[in-house]
């Protein structure tokens, strides 16, 4: 359809290389380890101390992954922008287990082409 897929992760560049190799991602994967893009898009949130401890028990170390100590994560979000840079579609859900249905994303992409 002519779209470019750009993925933004809170992981530092070295961790992103591992992710690219592991998941064979097609698209551009960018690091936002300082969470500046997530903050600008309004999807950054600070992880509370209890959640931070729970994540560590599951082997998730936010400081090691990002190389930063801000303890922030982004809400999973999808944006579709036109060639003019104007965002035409946004989806964000604080419940990371609820993902955008592919059919809705396809419909939004087709609508953005009009």
Keywords:
114 residues; 6 strands; 37% helix; two-stranded parallel ribbon; Glutaredoxin; alpha+beta
CATH architecture, by name, is: 3-Layer(aba) Sandwich
Work out the strand percent.
15-25%
Distance between the termini: 12 Å
When the domains are counted, the total is: 1
Characterize the biggest β-sheet.
2 strands, parallel
Strand-and-helix sequence, N→C?
A: EHEHEHHEEEH
What's the overall average pLDDT, rounded?
A: 91
Count of beta strands: 6
Class by SSE composition:
alpha+beta
Describe this structure in words.
The structure is a single chain. It is built from five helices and six strands. The chain has a single domain, classed as Glutaredoxin, CATH 3.40.30.10. The model has no long low-confidence stretch (mean pLDDT 91). It is α+β, with helices and mostly antiparallel strands and 114 residues long. The longest helix is centred in the N-terminal third of the chain and has 11 residues, at 13-23.
Quick summary:
This protein is an alpha+beta fold and 114 residues long.
Topology, element by element:
Elements: E1 6-9, H1 13-23, E2 28-31, H2 36-41, E3 44-46, H3 49-57, H4 62-66, E4 72-74, E5 77-81, E6 87-92, H5 102-112
Parallel strand pairs: 1-2
Antiparallel strand pairs: 3-4, 5-6
